């Protein structure tokens, strides 16, 4: 998910850093680097369009709030994943659809340009079988996804254009209901369609026909029910958590988790703190952050000077109103271990929501990813299980979508 912070904002406070992943046992680090590791929800494309920001340079989570770049991916052992074309929900009007369409197409172009500008380090992946050889060549794997189908407007046929661009996973809704589906977090707190809309059902048919994986994250429970009943291929939750651990609308209950697995689907575990645990209210911080977001929305084109000003304001907010009740790595693992207990290692993966709000105390950016591998091994999951969780399961779902094309 994105919270609209154009400076690549992950909602992190400047708190003391936990034990570095680089201090883990060498055998854990070596195994982690050997594994094929994919994250199913990278919001990092928002960083690509920032002034004076390069994916090839190492940045700092406590300085510019970004969490993913090439040097950190190498150090943290992240081979790649699904790079999201995220579009915020706007008005359901002809003008709103057109604006969102143009934005989404340009964001997709930014992802393709990242790959084209550095072919020695990045490669576009279009099929499940592409990931392993790309990683073996020492390059980062770039699958493309859409978070929020809103930019398609009422023209489901536009999905073909995004497929041709490289998109292989599509989520139906985001923070609010749209023309395709109900959101789990719509401000009205009332359903609009009670699941997928008629247009949403048509979109699902086209996704199945093209071989695109349906993503139910951010959509309501009833949308997931519809997807499980209607999709001819398995469903993915690209970045979600477990209601049994923390009862939040963005999370999934155990019965639906089992239904997802029964249809071959996978839940990719989210590291967005507000969905991992209840936090104590921090009204002063919320007010200050709200004002910061508002100033960004009204600020026009982002310049280097404007971004520096916003970063300074953000750091001042962190100093004056620090987050003292943040979710931790243990909270993140509680959700993952619960999902593993309920549906097993064939139906769980990782989609931490980097650069879109993800990150917890003890796992602030992708440098800390080996901690997940260590925690899974300590929980007595085998190397084969850990490989499934890191990449095998999401690739299996993608392969199933490919095999089901045209149905």
Automatic annotation (TrEMBL):
Keyword Glycoprotein attributed: no
Enzyme class per UniProt: hydrolase
Family matches, as Gene3D superfamilies: L27 domain, Metal-dependent hydrolases
GO molecular function, one term: dipeptidase activity
Source species taxonomy: Bacteria, Pseudomonadati, Pseudomonadota, Alphaproteobacteria, Sphingomonadales
Domain of life: Bacteria
Signal peptide annotation: 1-21
Name of protein: Membrane dipeptidase
The keyword Transport is assigned to this record: no
EC number from the UniProt entry: 3.4.13.19
Keywords assigned by UniProt, alphabetized: Dipeptidase, Hydrolase, Protease, Signal
Species in which this protein is naturally found: Sphingobium xenophagum
